[in-house]
């Protein structure tokens, strides 16, 4: 019964993706047909090629990839260092500072968007990728919380043994902590990659040149003021999901381990 419920839930959750793929290979007049036409007649595979030709997706994919890689690598570094500091280094006001740090997760991004826009304008970063990379790379409260909970489960004796051998706090972080939290780092890296890859509102706010656009922002240009080519939009959306699916399939074991484990095995 449990597996039956899980199968039903999986089918329901995958429904939008199945509909997106089927719409991507339909003729335009069949997408909104009533009653719905589930199986396209015929399959229009050329929608994928037409979608890639209609917009400069090659440049957009390059932008999304390199932005995602830089942000993910930076967040893994900054969040793991902050998490180690909050979890293992005692300093006055650490608990209060950590609570204040976590409280930023309750502030919607839309609230800080206008102040961030004014800051980017003041330092001359509007219409540059720095306006998307730098703020995201330097701050991620969720990542600090996730990694801190994992680091707190690491036995203190491991740190003490390294300190006795002459290691300083930075060496303990690099040689003891980081190797032990690889599953959580992998899980956080996947979450971060998905978030950065799907980011739409920040590129929409900060970027104005089409050569700087990311994939989600470029997809929105299939929607016109009077006419929307839904077939090409669904084809482009299907293509944009492929990198996320590949990353998840490759690293799904690390994602599960990173979420479920809270320390090292005995």
Relevant CATH superfamily of the largest domain: MetI-like
Residue windows where pLDDT falls under 50 for at least 5 positions: 262-266
CATH topology of the largest domain: MetI-like fold
Domain module tally: 2
Named at the architecture level, the CATH assignment of the largest domain is: Orthogonal Bundle
Q: Roughly what fraction of the amino acids lie in strands? A: under 5%
Strand/helix succession: HHHHHHHHHHHHH
Which outline best applies? globular
Gyration radius (Cα, Å) is: 23 Å
Considering DSSP H and I runs of 4 or more, what fraction of the residues is helical?
A: over 70%
Largest sheet entry = none
Distance between the termini: 34 Å
DSSP summary, beta strand count: 0
CATH class of the largest domain: Mainly Alpha
Mean pLDDT score: 84
Number of discrete helical segments:
13
What class would the helix/strand composition place it in?
mainly alpha
Structure description:
The chain has 266 residues and is mainly alpha-helical. The protein folds into two domains: 1-44, no CATH class; 54-260, MetI-like (MetI-like fold). Helix content is 71%, strand content 0%. It has 13 helices and no strands. It has helices at 2-24, 46-54, 57-88, 94-103, 109-122, 130-138, 141-152, 156-164, 169-180, 182-197, 201-206, 215-219, 230-260. Mean pLDDT is 84; it is low at 262-266. Keywords: Cell membrane, Membrane, Transmembrane, Transmembrane helix, Transport.
